[in-house]
Amino acid sequence: MRTMNSYWNRLFDVICEKNLFLTILGKVGKRYIFLIRTSLEVNERPNLLIAAGFHGEEKAGPLGILAWLESCDSKIFKEVNLFFLPVVNPIGFNRGIRYNTWGEKSNQGFCHKIDEPSREGRVLLKNIKLLTGSAKDGFLSLHEDILEKNFYVYSYEDVEEPSRMAYELRNLEAKFFKQIDDGVKVNEVCDPDAYAKDGIIHKLCDGSFEDCLMHKGIRSMVTETPGKCRISRRIEATKAIIDKFIEVSLELR
């Protein structure tokens, strides 16, 4: 799958097949940022938001969401309201580059004034009320570390220690990949230093969208699949991560 057009053709097919709903959040250049939802009803079911494609070279997140939607049992939609941001950075995804063509950091500038929001970030901030409502019972952000052979997890939670959710996602990823060693710095030079402990980086204030939602009282998780592993393995892991996130979110509610 080489372009956004072929990706969206398959995604539109599954949206129609499973009676999902599509909202345009905004436009960056000639590309749209979409929100997919499983219901338009106001109901008592928990709301979970799942995002991918903040960084365009991290392919397994968007492809994993597509594969999950194609294979999932629609009965789950009667238990939980699911919302998907399948590709936050469509320009980067289409070109296979990390940021957009203006070089803006697509997952920075949401809080702490560490950076300015990118064009994609401004679209999300314009829709922040809708997105926080969509994530009120949990947010999952599907990332990859393209330089790594090992996995790790970010836990954005305003508590002293990582929650059960963080450990459940870590243990799930460990079924697919080797866990990163303690003491390895994992993020960019310009970010606050991030080092995993037991495979988890907890409560990092880095100005990301996940950080922003944490400060709004939302449990936010980031999985980092290793980009140096096979893409098919990373997609299968992503599907399993989504399943586990939904399962544990329902149990914790």
What report would you give on this structure?
It is a single chain. The protein starts with a helix and ends with a helix. α6 (164-173) links the parallel β6 and β7 (178-179). With 253 residues, the chain is α/β, with parallel strands linked by helices. The chain contains eight helices and nine strands. It has one domain: Aminopeptidase (3-Layer(aba) Sandwich), CATH 3.40.630. The radius of gyration is 17 Å and the shape is globular. 34% of the residues lie in helices and 21% in strands. α2 packs across α8 and α6 runs antiparallel to α8. Strands 1, 2, 3, 4, 5, 6, 7, 8 and 9 form a nine-stranded mixed β-sheet that branches.
Topology:
Elements (H helix, E strand, L loop, with lengths): L3 H14 L3 E8 L2 E7 L9 E6 L7 H12 L9 E5 L4 H6 L23 H8 L1 H7 L4 E7 L4 E7 L7 H10 L4 E2 L20 E3 L6 H6 L5 E7 L4 H22 L1
Parallel strand pairs: 3-4, 3-5, 5-9, 6-7, 6-8
Antiparallel strand pairs: 1-2, 2-4, 6-9
Helix pairs in contact: 1-2, 2-8, 6-8
* SS strand fraction: 15-25%
What structural class should be given to the helix and strand makeup?
alpha/beta
CATH topology: Aminopeptidase
Architecture, according to CATH?
3-Layer(aba) Sandwich
Q: What is the highest CATH level, the class?
A: Alpha Beta
Helix content, binned percent: 25-40%
